[in-house]
Amino acid sequence: MTALTSLARAQAAVRGRAQPITTVRHVHVSGTPLVIVPLAMAGEANAPLAAMIGRDRTAPDLLIVPQPRDRSQRFQFAHSLALIVLHYLGQFASTTEPVATRPGQAPRRRVPDAPQLWVPNGEGIEFLRLFGRSTRFRSTSGPYAVQVSVPILGKWLTFLAEQAEHPGSSLLLAATTVLAQHWATGQSAIEDANLAAALGWIDPPRGHTGAEAARAAEDPLQWPPAGPATDPTFDREVLAPGIAEYDTAGDDLMAQRRAVGRLAAALRGQLEPTWQLTWRAIELIGHLPPGGHVAARWEQDRDAYSRFNEHVASGGNPQPTRDSAVAAAIRLNDLERRQAAYEAQRAFDDPLVMAEHRLAGEAFAGTVVASVPNRRVGVGRRAALRPLITVRTVDPVRLTAGEATLRDPERPRQHADILTVTDTPSSGTEIVLELAGGMGRGRTPTPGSVPAAGDRVCFCTLTDDYQPRGTFPSRDATPWTHGGPPQAPRRSDDEANEAWA
């Protein structure tokens, strides 16, 4: 937790309402999201119990498993879920648009829009990840054959769960996580994982404080848990007798229908409040203006969706249970580069996020008190334009001359080097910066490219410049220290029989 977030939490506790910790939203919000609220049976490894799913807030589909221990019913649930999810995912692949590439190369194709799935919390993403792992290897023939849709659903759920780990990705989002990125409540981060409690602080009912609304959210009768776990009292007093009634019905179809109807009504009552809360969270996030880099990150998501859709359409293999050493290293490198770019972009888009870096000494904001825009270094035709500016700031400056290259979010193509740092007890700190780049190709800088005296500026060590992927050996050249070249992937009966966890 950062210093400003801690302060915002204290203010929220005093004022009785969550405090914004951003000025813009840092995720893409689709106009046609698919919301999934899953439930799992307690005591069974990721055994699906029910799911409320749909794109229409007023008309969700309810899928249930009357007997979660029954293997065939689990896969029937997976098939029913696949029909909805795959239909939604496939709608975005029907049209593509050309995207310019390097000169001389043919343009590539990308979908104009991509799907977006929402779940109530991070545990919902984990449920989908495990559900994808337990379905993507299933065989469509043989003794344990499943519907063709089931392994395809598993591939997609695995892909979406992996994308959710990429910083800045908006293909699969957890409502509690997104809310916590934009508001600070007067409770702990663990309590923020309760969607009803978090929204109680952010959007309390009229006449109530956030603390009162969050306290009311602790009542499981009014606000059942947001899933995938269920309330123990509900399990004991409602769910267990309902499943027992279904088991007792045996081959009596009328008795089965009555038991299924009672179970469906009970599970709908558990899911409906969380369903409405998830849509309310989407509304609140959607009301915030988007950050400047949100659209660019959504383009990355569209690229990822387009590539994986082609992989699935061509009959590509499911993702392996474990990455090879090289694949794992590449994935880690990609995550690290995405994380660095995401942190920089959030700071560039949002002054409140930048303030965190200013407090940490990684950035400073101030006023230009002197500017030498036409300064040149070198002689003759090799002389380079290197303006000098002096910035006065009251921020804590922990950077020294030559330590790092700085960027101004307002001039992203320009970088600055610190020449001197001088503390003046009466007026703060004065930093002399040498500028390079982003000033045009002439002998004098383009108007506005060099800050003038009196301008307000902000410089930081962050950068979202493209960072090339690290150099890694090929799969066949995996060193012996990492197990040597891995064997070619082979399908086995063990994968088809893999447990749901």
Description:
By secondary structure, the protein is an alpha+beta fold. It folds into two domains: 3-323, no CATH class; 363-460, Elongation Factor Tu (Ef-tu), domain 3, CATH 2.40.30. 40% of the residues lie in helices and 17% in strands. It has helices spanning 3-15, 71-91, 122-135, 149-164, 175-182, 195-202, 210-216, 232-249, 253-287, 294-313, 325-349, 351-359, 493-496, and strands at 19-20, 34-40, 48-54, 61-64, 97-99, 108-110, 117-119, 172-174, 183-184, 363-372, 376-377, 384-385, 388-393, 405-408, 411-424, 428-436, 456-460. The strands form five sheets. Strands 14-15-16-13-10-17 form a six-stranded antiparallel β-sheet. A five-stranded mixed β-sheet has the order 4-3-2-7-8, with helices on both faces. Strands 1-9 form a two-stranded antiparallel ribbon. A hairpin with a 6-residue loop joins strand 3 and strand 4. The longest helix is centred in the middle third of the chain and has 35 residues, at 253-287. The protein starts with a helix and ends in a 5-residue tail after the last helix. The model has no long low-confidence stretch (mean pLDDT 90).
Which strand order spans the largest sheet, edge to edge or round the barrel?
14-15-16-13-10-17
Return Rg in Å: 27 Å
What is the number of beta strands?
17
**Number of structural units classed as domains:** 2
Helix count, per DSSP? 13
What is the approximate shape?
globular
Q: Let me know the largest β-sheet.
A: 6 strands, antiparallel
Task: Give the low-pLDDT segments.
Answer: none
The fraction of residues in strands falls at: 15-25%
- Taking the alpha carbons of the first and last residues, their distance comes to 32 Å
Query: Roughly how much helix do the residues carry, as a percent range?
Result: 25-40%
Secondary structural class:
alpha+beta
Note the run of SSEs as H and E. HEEEEHEEEHHEHEHHHHHHHEEEEEEEEH
- Mean pLDDT across the residues is 90
